[in-house]
Every structure is written in structure tokens, then in C-alpha cells.
């Protein structure tokens, strides 16, 4: 049987128990999956016959066999060989796993398809989260798909418009809290404890992490059952880096890959408690009271899964780095223009971090590197438009158009 376990004192909880923090020590939980069952699944390889997606790994998920899944076809995103970007950065083996290709445009869908499936399995009729944008967009969509009520708390005025529009059109109750993400998260944690009928789907919920671990599985399969040398990912609340590491670790334990990648987390300078802890070899974070960055998705000062993230980096002999807003925006544009991949600023931070680590000699030019771009560029069109040359307005005349293009009229 699979079960939930405290990451600190290892107290165990049942797979159908609604519990967000360890009742003994207050730390966060993780799912321990039933490895014996998966060994059987892997042996007969039936799962390999289905297309690449989160639910290809149904047997790897802590969901009962008879449960109907709530899905919009998540996962199966492209792993793009990035020769032109690699060349620009002096690298020979660079890949981009583009999570903007998911149904609501971010990696959050991997977690929400499993999280909302679990919510329905548990009989929940009302789900809630705090969010910097993408989590709320994703939860709103999956709650609509499941036909259940959804409430999201977002920081007032600080989330990208695309994400806000998603939460609204899917019919979530949207509360804009006059405060930041960390404050919003505290409220939903308290609400879910106080009103037990409201089910919490922030990444503190370990079922979400289970869905997101499929990102690690997929990368291995797309590289023909090899792990990359290094995995680079933006870090906010630190659920994703923890999930991807869990995915790689489980594939390793199952003998499906023979090495593990160096997990490398990137944060924005103004919101970097985890990167700072790692860089100073501390195993504790100092929360940032007023986080700031243009990458609003990762504007988080008190990341909930910080311990899991530090473990992932340390166990894998990885590292962490910080990047400035200017570096993030420059890289966003570079990626869009040399690879045709449009990502939101938070996503570009993984590549901005890569650039910096190459420059500092931390990364070897022949490493096989996978950068995860976590969200689609259309989530935040305002930031993109601000950074580019304005369209040239011309009269509706051939000569004016030729003139603007600098070509002579014949
Ligand atoms: C594009 O939506 O936290 O380290 O509330 O939207 O797992 O938190 C978003 C996070 C990276 C960081 N890239 O992932 C939210 C939220 C994008 C994101 C992250 C987020 P975690």
C-alpha cells in the first residue's frame, strides 16, 4: 500500500486521510508509493504502449484503481533540442522541456489532474488554493472539469493578466488579498484546517507533487531512458524541484535509469531564500518579508517546500543561483528569438541561471542539460510587449509599407 509520511519524523498517515501537516511535529508530508506494485507494472511494460502523459503513469500515482480521473490531457510536453541557444551560450547538448504546452499553459496541470482527482475521490466539493497565478488558473480549470466549487486567493494587483483571466473564466471565486502570496497562503492553510470540507490544493498537498513527478519520468523516456547530467528549474514555493527529483529518484530505484541529474534551482534575486541558503551551505532558509521580482510567478518569500528543495539539491550534488530581473527579461527575449519558444519571465529564469552558471565556470560545456520552462509566454503579454520594439503604424498604402520595410518601390 502507498501511504503519506512526514519528511521529518516519518510518522505515517493513510492515503485517504486528509492531513496537510504532520500531527506530531508539524512538518510537511510526502507520498511513499507502493514500489512492489510498480515493479510489476514496469516488468510487463504495458504502460509504455500509451502516449507520453501524466496518466501513462497511473500505476505510479496514489489513486485507487476504480477512480475516474479528472483530465484535460496533461503532460507529454516537448523536449526540444536547442542547438541555436546552446551555441549562443557555448553549450553542446542543451534541451528545453517546455511545460507551457500543458492544457492551461503551465506545469501545474500535472499536479492538478492528480490533486483534483484525489479531491473528488475523497468526496470534496470545494477546493481552494493561494497562488501567484498559474496554480489558480490550473485549479480553476480542473475544478470546472470536475464540476466542483473553486476558490482562489491571489495577491492584489501582482499577478499576470492571462492567469487572472483563466481563473475568472473558469468560474472560480477570485479573492484578491491586499497582501502578498505568502500571506494569502497562510489564510488558505488556516481556512482548510478550520473548515474541513474545503480541500487544499497548494503544493503542500503531496498528491500534487505526485502528478508533477511525471515531469522527471518523461524527460528520462524522451532521452531514451537516460537522465540528463543536469536539470535546471525555476524555484518559487519549491514544489516542482522536489517533485522532479522524486520522479528521477523513483526511476533510478526502479532501475529505469542508471544515474541521477544534478538538480539546479534558480530564483530571482529579490525572492531567493532557497538559493541563498544553498549558496551559503546552510540547511535553513531565512524567509524574505517583501519579495520582489518582475517574474511574479516566483515572487515568494517563504517557500513551503524549502526542506525538500534543499534535500534535492544536496542529494544530487546540484546547486542554486540567483538572477536579476534584467537577466530574466533579456533571456526571455533571446529564447523566443533563437528557438521560437515563448515563455513567461519566471520560466526564463532557468535559462538566465544557466547562462550565469556557464559564465562562472560551474557548468561544463559538454554537459547534457535540460532546462524546464514552466509557463507559457501568453500568460503575461504585458511584460513581453513592454520589452519589444513597438509595431510601426503605416498608412494603408503600398508605398508606405515598402518605405517602412526599407525596400524601393518599383
Ligand atoms: C511559471 O501559481 O506558486 O517552485 O501559485 O508559475 O513549484 O512553486 C507558481 C509557481 C515556476 C515555481 N514557474 O514553481 C503559483 C505558483 C512558474 C510558476 C514556478 C511557478 P514552484
Could you explain the architecture of this structure?
With 410 residues, this protein is an alpha/beta fold. Among the domains are: 1-28, no CATH class; 79-105 and 208-387, Rossmann fold. It has 15 helices and 13 strands. It has helices at residues 35-44, 83-89, 108-121, 134-146, 161-169, 181-194, 206-212, 214-222, 239-253, 273-279, 306-315, 325-339, 345-359, 381-387, 398-405; strands at residues 3-6, 12-13, 29-32, 79-81, 93-98, 126-130, 149-155, 173-177, 198-200, 230-234, 262-268, 319-323, 368-373. The chain has a six-stranded mixed beta sheet, with helices on both faces. Strand 1 (3-6) and strand 2 form a beta hairpin. The protein is globular. The N and C termini lie far apart (77 Å).
Which helices and strands, and how do they pair?
Elements (H helix, E strand, L loop, with lengths): L2 E4 L5 E2 L15 E4 L2 H10 L34 E3 L1 H7 L3 E6 L9 H14 L4 E5 L3 H13 L2 E7 L5 H9 L3 E5 L3 H14 L3 E3 L5 H7 L1 H9 L7 E5 L4 H15 L8 E7 L4 H7 L26 H10 L3 E5 L1 H15 L5 H15 L8 E6 L7 H7 L10 H8 L5
Parallel strand pairs: 5-13, 6-7, 6-9, 7-8, 10-11, 10-13, 11-12
Antiparallel strand pairs: 1-2, 1-3, 4-5
The protein binds ligand AN7.
Amino acid at each position: 500500500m502507498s501511504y503519506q509520511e512526514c519528511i521529518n519524523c516519518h510518522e505515517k498517515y493513510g492515503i485517504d486521510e486528509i492531513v496537510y501537516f504532520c500531527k506530531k511535529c508539524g512538518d510537511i508530508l510526502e507520498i511513499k508509493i507502493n514500489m512492489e506494485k510498480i515493479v510489476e507494472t514496469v516488468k510487463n511494460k504495458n504502460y509504455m504502449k500509451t502516449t507520453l502523459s501524466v496518466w501513462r503513469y497511473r500505476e505510479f500515482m496514489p489513486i485507487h484503481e476504480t477512480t475516474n480521473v479528472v483530465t484535460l490531457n496533461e503532460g507529454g510536453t516537448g523536449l526540444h533540442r536547442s542547438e541555436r541557444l546552446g551555441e549562443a551560450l557555448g553549450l553542446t547538448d542543451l534541451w528545453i522541456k517546455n511545460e507551457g504546452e500543458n492544457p492551461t499553459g503551465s506545469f501545474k496541470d500535472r499536479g492538478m489532474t492528480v490533486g483534483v482527482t484525489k479531491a473528488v475521490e475523497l468526496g470534496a466539493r470545494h477546493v481552494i488554493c493561494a497562488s501567484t497565478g498559474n496554480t489558480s488558473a490550473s485549479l480553476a480549470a480542473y475544478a470546472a472539469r470536475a464540476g466542483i466549487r473553486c476558490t482562489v486567493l491571489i495577491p492584489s494587483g501582482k499577478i499576470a493578466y492571462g492567469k487572472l483571466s483563466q481563473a475568472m473564466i473558469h468560474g472560480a471565486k477570485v479573492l484578491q488579498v491586499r497582501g502578498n502570496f505568502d500571506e494569502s497562503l497562510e489564510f488558505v492553510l488556516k481556512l482548510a484546517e478550520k473548515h474541513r470540507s474545503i480541500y487544499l490544493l497548494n503544493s503542500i498537498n503531496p498528491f500534487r507533487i505526485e502528478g508533477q513527478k511525471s515531469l522527471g519520468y518523461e524527460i528520462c523516456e524522451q532521452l531514451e531512458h537516460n537522465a540528463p547530467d543536469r536539470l535546471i528549474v525555476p524555484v518559487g514555493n519549491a514544489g516542482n524541484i522536489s517533485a522532479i527529483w522524486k520522479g528521477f529518484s523513483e526511476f533510478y530505484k526502479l532501475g529505469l535509469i542508471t544515474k541521477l541529474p544534478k538538480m539546479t534551482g534558480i530564483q530571482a534575486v529579490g525572492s531567493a531564500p532557497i538559493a541563498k541558503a544553498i549558496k551559503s551551505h546552510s540547511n535553513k532558509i531565512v524567509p524574505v518579508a517583501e519579495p520582489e521580482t518582475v517574474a511574479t510567478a516566483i515572487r515568494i518569500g517563504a517557500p513551503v517546500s524549502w526542506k525538500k528543495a534543499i534535500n534535492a539539491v544536496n542529494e544530487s550534488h546540484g546547486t542554486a543561483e540567483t538572477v536579476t530581473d534584467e537577466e530574466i527579461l533579456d533571456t526571455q527575449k533571446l529564447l523566443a528569438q533563437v528557438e521560437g519558444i515563448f515563455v513567461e519571465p519566471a520560466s526564463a529564469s532557468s535559462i538566465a541561471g544557466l547562462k550565469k552558471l556557464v559564465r562562472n565556470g560551474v557548468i561544463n560545456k559538454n554537459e547534457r542539460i535540460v532546462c524546464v520552462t514552466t509557463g507559457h509566454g501568453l500568460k503575461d503579454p504585458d511584460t513581453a510587449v513592454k520589452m519589444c520594439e513597438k509595431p510601426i503604424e503605416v498608412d494603408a498604402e503600398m508605398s508606405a509599407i515598402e518605405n517602412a520595410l526599407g525596400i524601393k518601390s518599383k
